[in-house]
């Protein structure tokens, strides 16, 4: 077992890939979380950056993506990324790319932060560098979803809305769902301003209980405010009826483990991104 977490299993080192220890053996579905080792990119994008972000060489990104796809035995025209605009739009993906592929900079679902599919061999992919990524799987009526849950989408209740839409599409029940949380900025490090706590006072989806004040250890002794992105999204998913034991949180902070995952807050601008992917297998 890899040393990062009891919940996350390293399944490849070149390229660096992880799976949920708890749910990796679920029949009919495959998921994976990419790390940042084993790629071609340099600098803050070193080395397995999967994002066409404008500062990494696009040729490196294509090489990195292809290396991952080859390892996973999927084709580029099966893989769907999303634009990720920090909103609550959910898209249903029903067909493979007709004229392009995930090796193209233009190949993404626009204006979307969550995707759902009932089609086998369509790979849903989301990217992040501190935001939380969530993969959902309906074990009763095979359906998968992926969510990009930064603080803005979390405040908009994207996790709740995606679960409800997924259940509507599948006709299933919440007890049949499983959720996997990627590494992200954890409550140990995800510092926010008091204005976000003020928003939570009136928010339907995020509550003050999801924030914690800590005393600064410096001489100033200032109280610092931290947001628990994990708990906020866990509670959203639980509110739909999904059992707690069906939610698997990696419990890995990207800011603490920045050697293995990309972190905007640790490395600053022009950093790369890791990915989470999920797809249904042919029955």
Explain what this protein looks like in three dimensions.
Belongs to the purine nucleoside phosphorylase YfiH/LACC1 family. It holds the Pfam family Cu-oxidase_4. It comes from candidate division CSSED10-310 bacterium. Keywords: Hydrolase, Metal-binding, Transferase, Zinc. This is Purine nucleoside phosphorylase. By secondary structure, the chain is of the alpha+beta class. It has a single domain (8-185, 243-280), classed as 4-Layer Sandwich (CNF1/YfiH-like putative cysteine hydrolases), CATH 3.60.140.10. It contains six helices and 14 strands. The strands form three sheets. Strands 1-2-3-14-7-4 form a six-stranded mixed β-sheet, with no helix packed on it. The longest helix is centred in the first third of the chain and has 15 residues, at 58-72. The protein starts with 7 loop residues before the first strand and ends with a strand. The model has no long low-confidence stretch (mean pLDDT 95).
**Mean pLDDT over all positions:** 95
Biggest sheet, in brief? Answer: 6 strands, mixed
Helix run count: 6
* CATH class descriptor: Alpha Beta
Proportion in β-strands:
25-35%
Low-confidence parts lasting 5 or more residues at pLDDT below 50? none
What does this entry show, briefly?
The chain is built from six helices and 14 strands. With 283 residues, it is α+β, with helices and mostly antiparallel strands.
């Amino acid at each position: 077992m890899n040393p990062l977490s009891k919940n996350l299993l390293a399944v490849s080192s070149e390229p660096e890939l992880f799976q949920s220890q708890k749910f990796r053996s679920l029949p009919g579905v495959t998921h994976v979380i990419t790390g940042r080792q084993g790629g071609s990119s340099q600098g803050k994008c070193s080395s397995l950056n999967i994002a066409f972000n404008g500062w990494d060489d696009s040729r490196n990104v294509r090489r990195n993506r292809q290396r991952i796809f080859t390892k996973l035995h999927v084709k580029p025209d099966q893989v769907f990324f999303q634009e990720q605009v920090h909103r609550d739009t959910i898209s249903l993906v029903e067909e493979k790319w007709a004229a392009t592929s995930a090796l193209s900079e233009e190949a993404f679902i626009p204006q979307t932060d969550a995707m759902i599919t009932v089609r086998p061999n369509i790979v849903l992919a989301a990217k992040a560098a501190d935001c939380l990524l969530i993969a959902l799987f309906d074990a009763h009526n095979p359906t998968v979803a992926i969510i990009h849950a930064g603080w803005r989408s979390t405040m908009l209740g994207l996790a709740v809305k995606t679960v409800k839409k997924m259940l509507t599409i599948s006709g299933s029940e919440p007890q049949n769902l499983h959720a996997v949380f990627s590494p992200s900025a954890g409550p140990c490090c995800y510092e926010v301003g008091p204005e976000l706590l003020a928003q939570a006072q009136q928010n339907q989806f995020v509550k003050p209980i999801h924030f914690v004040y800590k005393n600064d250890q410096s001489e100033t002794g200032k109280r610092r405010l931290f947001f628990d992105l994990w708990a906020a999204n866990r509670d959203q998913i639980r509110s739909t009826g999904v059992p707690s034991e069906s939610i698997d949180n990696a419990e890995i902070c990207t800011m603490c483990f920045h050697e293995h995952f990309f972190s905007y807050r640790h490395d600053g601008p022009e950093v790369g991104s890791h990915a989470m992917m999920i797809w249904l297998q042919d029955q």
